[in-house]
Amino acid sequence: MSELAGNILRFARLLRRAGLAGGPETALAALRAAEAVNILERDELYWALHAVLVRRPEDHELYDQAFGHFFRVREVADDAYSMLMSRSQVPRRPALSRRVSEAFRAPDQGEAMGEKIELAATLATSGAEVLRTRDFEQMSAAELARARAAAARIDLLVRPLPTRRFQPWPRGRLDLPRTIRDAMRTFGDVAPLRFRRRRLRPPPLVALCDISGSMGRYSEMLLAFLHAVSAARPRVHTFLFGTRLSNVTRTLRHRDVDEALARCGREVVDWGGGTRLGACLQQFNRHWSRRVLSQGAVVLLITDGLDSDAGAGLGAAAERLHKSCRRLIWLNPLLRWDGFEPRAQGVRALLPHVDEHRPVHNLESLEQLAQALARLNRT
């Protein structure tokens, strides 16, 4: 195998580790595409590989970063190729996304062709259990990546509620109008009775997430969790607040979680600062409550309750929010401490107006939250 062919195969495996769809047939197609163009022209090689390796529009940026870094580092061409790179019209970015960086750091499993790869399952269950109970703040980068993938698999199923509309059903309440219409079609002969029931629909889910400096990694992990929830079900509204309120519902609808979080970082200007909890809740009640808190909405308030304004106006704002929604659940990472006491003024102002006060600091707490939301109609 030539050096160029080997680098093409390594590049295809790199993209697969970064999350792009593809398999052995895609790598072979990339080899054929490289043979069909002039490899000394960077643009031709770029777009030839792009045509076979990129299948989704949102993967273009990852491919662009990986191509620029991979072929610059490995230096697969001679001096003439290096001279062409300065005249290239292909866009290049100096910064690499987290997915591409981790793909470069990960070992290439395809280097040893023909070697049997054995996966040790020893202590696998124990490792998974440790990951479930480990605090997000204490996780390494690799553990955070595994935790984000595990959080995305948690089914957050809020039990559906009956609406005003009806739907045909084999039994239940008699649907007199439909029964009469069917009888008229038979000219008065005997017609079967028709029944109906109220249409069921999951209530809206509204998340208000604190992104102040005291929340740290909890905000990042919960945003990744909310991204998965937004992709799995409709009517999920996400707001971020620090010193001001920001609606990131549309931003989190992006299919790629890394790109969605990167856009949130660019759009929200008060990331990692203080918390004006009362003012932000008042702004939400004034501008957004009537738009999103309808049909029995459930509100997840994700904050540690530490307010820079010392709880000014927080009690009244929390009371109005509680009356506007079906259930207000406060997710507080400070509850991970056994000796937690509501001494802060913001915590004491919030507590009388929430239906539940739950910890949210590891995967186990997220699973318990999903189970609690699935039991809402039983309480």
Query: Mind describing the biggest β-sheet?
Result: 6 strands, mixed
Note poorly predicted spans: 74-94, 111-126
What's the pLDDT, averaged over the residues? 78
Q: How many E-type strands?
A: 9
The percent of residues in helical segments reads: 40-55%
Q: Secondary-structure blueprint of this entry?
A:
Elements: H1 3-17, H2 24-35, H3 42-53, H4 60-74, H5 79-85, H6 98-105, H7 124-133, H8 141-152, E1 161-169, E2 173-174, H9 176-185, E3 195-201, E4 205-210, H10 217-232, E5 236-241, E6 245-247, H11 257-267, H12 277-287, H13 289-292, E7 298-302, H14 314-324, E8 327-331, H15 345-350, E9 356-358, H16 363-374
Parallel strand pairs: 4-5, 4-7, 7-8, 8-9
Antiparallel strand pairs: 1-3, 2-3, 5-6
Would you write up a description of this structure?
The chain has 379 residues and is an alpha/beta fold. The chain folds into three domains: 3-105, no CATH class; 164-201, no CATH class; 205-378, von Willebrand factor, type A domain (Rossmann fold). The protein has 16 helices and nine strands. It has helices at 3-17, 24-35, 42-53, 60-74, 79-85, 98-105, 124-133, 141-152, 176-185, 217-232, 257-267, 277-287, 289-292, 314-324, 345-350, 363-374; strands at residues 161-169, 173-174, 195-201, 205-210, 236-241, 245-247, 298-302, 327-331, 356-358. A six-stranded mixed sheet has the order 6-5-4-7-8-9. Helix 14 links the parallel strand 7 (298-302) and strand 8 (327-331). Helix 1 runs antiparallel to helix 4 (60-74). It is flat. It starts with a helix and ends in a 5-residue tail after the last helix.
